[in-house]
Amino acid sequence: MKIHLVTPAKENSRNGNRTSAMRWAGLLRSAGHRVRIDTDYNGEPTDLVIALHAWRSAAAIRRYREASPEGPLVVALGGTDVNTYLKTDPQTTLDSMKMADALVGLHDLVAAELPPEFRRKLSVIRQSAKPLPRPRNPSKRCFDICVIGHLREEKDPFRTALAARLLPVESRVRVLHYGKAHGPEWALQAEAEMRVNPRYRWQGEVSAGQVRQALLRAHLMVISSLQEGGANVVSEALVGGVPIIASDIAGNIGLLGRDYGGYFRVGDETSLAERIRRAEVDERFLKSLQRQGRALAPMFTPEQELSAWQKLLATIT
Question: How far is 68 from 52, CA to CA, in rounded Å?
């Protein structure tokens, strides 16, 4: 089958939308499909369109539906579709959802955020990750916390740095933050934080391979986001055996489960600092997070993700 995969993220981008598109294309190609990735749709012959992001890809979705009224169309919902644009621009977002034959969400709590008439269209497809290339080897000198996320509002990027300021002087915590600054003001804030906070080190934008190297050395990962659609960094940490401390938002709970023991109150650095300190000094707590993660990991394999895609496509083509 010839598939046109539309993503708003440009070719050289390292953001989540581009990462998802590249991974999906690879999985679908492995199943024998021909997949073209583009940032738009302009009438090219295709058997199926998968559009990533209802709001950002709205123009491409509309053009495809006008060119092919009966053509199969899957719309994958981004985190900002569900958490932002359904509120700030509902008409555009809902129009894209109406035109879709199927919707894809990335975590188990997405359905609760959608208008009831769209829930029957929804399939949850968890993003997958591959195992780390070798056994983890965390630092002996420092207790390294990996933060993986671009510097922008939705990620609440400095919450872990603020939590680290609250730790006692004897703490060995070091926060290593990997991600691109979305604007010069974010870079300036990161640089200012490093000057006053010796525990915090901003590493800037790095490759996927460098992120995986960072996970090999980390004692745990913190995801502090204010909103998420189902972050792939959670999949990476789970499959890699890295314990996770996460903000208690739907996008994280929908991946880790309501009973997961590593949540902190979103936007609350005191709550986060308590969790970090406990992980540092209480080996049983840290190992319990790792055990819970290992139990979840089989749901985040490439085989599971491809199987979910094949099941979905079989229902609409």
Answer: 18
